[in-house]
Specification:
By secondary structure, the protein is an alpha/beta fold. It contains 14 helices and 12 strands.
């Protein structure tokens, strides 16, 4: 067996299961799950219709590169959304089976294993970044995202030697779990660093379409490149998904886009990896990327939930609205694991301890005394969860 498998830590939800193993929640209260970021809003009907109408394509082997219609649909969406010009769907776009699969595979393709290889990522982080780095034969380096830095990674803490050894930098904007948006000026500075030290930036932008101000969508890495005149997006790729944007996590449909030279080699890897998206999923994805009305409606539902929940928790819990995304990242009045256990055992609510989403770096775990709350349930459930939380806080 690959010895690097022994370096992998339990996934956060397995840790949560162990945390609750001796607890019995109240039977008179229905369970409300705020622990997992699985969208619960209805999937668009027209996407399901496109899926059903293309089941006859199951008799064909799909292309790893994806059908031209899908790549052109994605390129068109990127150009409209991020004000890009001339993005080439043929060479600068590649479909993936959800960004989780794509992010992990990408590290295996671009990292040269060795004792000096570093993969940098935010802290807290999506655990795939760590596992991908370890199994690619690199050492993960975690960059703390603290409140005093607006929950953005403290890139000033990275040494010149670490930048020089860096082969891959994972970004996540809007952040999971903090919701912080990386400003375009900082993205531009990171592009310059990537070109100076010759590392690749993989920007996970899966939450980019859940924001609160319709006139100010979060900027993206390719947008930062374009404003610098870097239309070849050298050393830069972005990952997007239909899971959060379109409430289609089960479709397992996303894409990677950017540097054509990097994507050509990644396509070679994927050809051997055997991960072509099913043809009916590709057809349904075209329908989703071509429509924006359902995404605007989706944002409206989240906006309503955030307003109601934060109003209920106001003055009771140290929490504020994020810049984007569908998570709250509140401070807890007691250790985060104790808070999660009390919520489960007394109110039948699950939240995820923040320390499970982070690692100790520079002497601290930035998830300590915080929990992640995913406002993915229906409005009335989210409000009820907040009310139950207030009752618990009164007892604490």
């Amino acid at each position: 067996m690959n010895p690097d498998l022994l370096k992998l830590q339990p996934y956060p939800f397995e840790q949560l299961r162990q945390l609750f193993v001796d607890l019995q929640p109240p039977a008179d209260k229905s369970h409300i799950a705020l622990s997992i970021g699985e969208p619960k809003h209805p999937s668009p009907r027209f996407v399901m219709q496109a899926l059903a109408e293309n089941l006859d394509k199951l008799s064909n082997y799909p292309l790893t590169k994806g059908i031209p219609e899908l790549r052109e649909s994605i390129a068109g969406w990127l150009q409209r959304r991020f004000k890009l010009q001339g993005l080439d769907g043929e060479s600068q776009v590649l479909p993936v089976n959800g960004t989780r699969e794509g992010l992990f595979a990408f590290a295996q393709a671009v990292v040269t294993a060795g004792p000096d290889a570093l993969v940098l990522s935010p802290n807290p982080f999506y655990q795939i970044y760590e596992g991908a780095a370890l199994l690619a034969g690199a050492q993960p380096v975690f960059i703390n995202c603290n409140e005093d830095n607006g929950f953005l990674p403290d890139f000033d803490s990275v040494s010149d030697e670490q930048w020089q050894r860096c082969q891959l930098l994972f970004l996540c904007s809007p952040g999971n779990p903090t919701g912080a948006i990386t400003p375009i000026e900082q993205l531009q500075q990171l592009v310059r660093l990537a070109q100076q030290h010759d590392f690749i930036i993989a920007s996970d932008e899966c939450y980019s379409e859940i924001y609160f101000d319709e006139d100010n969508p979060p900027p993206g890495l390719l947008q930062a490149c374009a404003t610098m005149g870097e239309h070849d997006y050298r050393n830069c790729v972005v990952f997007h998904s239909l899971s959060k944007r379109s409430n289609l996590p089960g479709l397992r449909s996303g894409f990677v886009a950017g540097d054509a030279d990097v994507l050509a080699k990644f396509l070679l890897y994927r050809t051997y990896h055997g991960c072509a998206m099913p043809p009916h999923h590709q057809a349904a994805s075209v329908a989703a990327w071509d429509d924006e009305a359902h995404v605007v409606a989706n944002r409206s539902l989240y906006r309503e939930k955030f307003q109601a929940v934060i109003a209920t928790l106001d003055g009771q819990l140290n929490v504020s609205s994020p810049d984007a995304g569908f998570y709250l990242w509140p401070k807890t009045p007691v250790p985060e694991t104790d808070f999660a256990r009390a919520l489960y055992s007394e109110e039948h609510i699950t939240v995820l301890p923040g320390s499970y989403l982070a690692r100790e770096a520079q002497g601290i775990n930035p998830g300590r005394n915080r929990v992640r709350m995913a406002l993915v349930a229906e409005l009335d459930q989210c409000v009820e969860a907040a009310q139950r939380m207030v009752h618990l806080l009164g007892r604490l």
